[in-house]
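Milestone 3.1: sequence recovery, worked example.
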């Protein structure tokens, strides 16, 4: 983990002379890991579509989304410590991503449902996080918001095309949304770590835009002629290292090479 002196030195390099309060350092690292883990895990999931998407255009689109997300994950994990070690040498219980991003791709409709729900939230988060009192976090968010705006638009367009398409595509889209809906409440969960960072202006309080988020999702689904899924028992715990079995399988693939050849030089 980054030390206080390392963080302060980085601030000085960037023209900042106000050091981070000592008690804020672990919380900031935790927050950056959450943001980085969300992006990296979803990027890894989307990369699984490479060569398997229903059309070449879609194959390229999903690959581009994956690259954007992996870049965001690298940047946020770089603030939390050694990005490579955090990505490839942590066990499953040490990951802090939300449950939504680790869910299997399923069919194309389920992938789009997951992307719609996450990218809409991530876009709203990054828009506000660009005003973070920590300029490093703000800079990553400001760059990422431009990328995620496209992710959100693409997911919304495909949701509408599938929902307002054939009977089969509408059924699959509805089933994908129903599968993913239980993971939405975790996106707006606020714990003690987040509370302190919100008070310092470093983090964003997601509860403040939950109403807007739900209205936007409802509007997209209305245009797609799909019903908003019924509320389900919320699945929580990803931020505390409690995950589904799906994450372990994903990490086994993602971490295989650096764990098998730890001293390899590229």
């Amino acid at each position: 983990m980054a030390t206080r002196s390392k963080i302060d030195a980085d601030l000085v390099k960037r023209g900042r002379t106000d050091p981070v309060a000592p008690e804020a350092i672990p919380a900031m690292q935790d927050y950056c890991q959450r943001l980085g883990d969300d992006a990296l895990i979803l990027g890894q999931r989307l990369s699984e579509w490479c060569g398997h998407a229903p059309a070449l255009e879609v194959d390229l689109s999903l690959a581009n989304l994956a690259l954007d997300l992996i870049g965001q994950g690298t940047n946020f994990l770089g603030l939390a410590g050694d990005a490579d070690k955090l990505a490839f040498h942590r066990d499953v219980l040490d990951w802090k991503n939300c449950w939504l991003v680790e869910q299997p791709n399923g069919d194309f409709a389920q992938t789009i449902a997951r992307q719609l729900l996450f990218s809409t939230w991530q876009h709203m988060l990054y828009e506000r996080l660009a005003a973070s009192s920590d300029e490093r976090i703000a800079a990553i968010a400001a760059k990422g918001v431009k990328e995620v705006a496209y992710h959100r638009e693409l997911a919304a367009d495909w949701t509408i095309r599938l929902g307002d398409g054939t009977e089969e595509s509408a059924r699959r889209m509805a089933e994908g949304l129903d599968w993913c809906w239980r993971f939405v409440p975790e996106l707006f969960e606020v714990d003690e770590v987040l509370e302190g960072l919100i008070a310092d202006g470093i983090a964003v309080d997601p509860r403040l835009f939950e109403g807007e988020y739900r209205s936007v999702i409802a509007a997209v689904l209305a245009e797609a002629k799909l019903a908003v899924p019924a509320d389900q028992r919320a699945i929580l715990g990803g931020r505390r290292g409690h995950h589904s079995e799906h994450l372990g399988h994903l990490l086994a693939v993602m971490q295989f090479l650096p764990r098998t050849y730890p001293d390899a030089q590229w």
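Residues 24-253 form a domain with the Ferritin fold (CATH 1.20.1260.10). The chain has one domain: 24-253.
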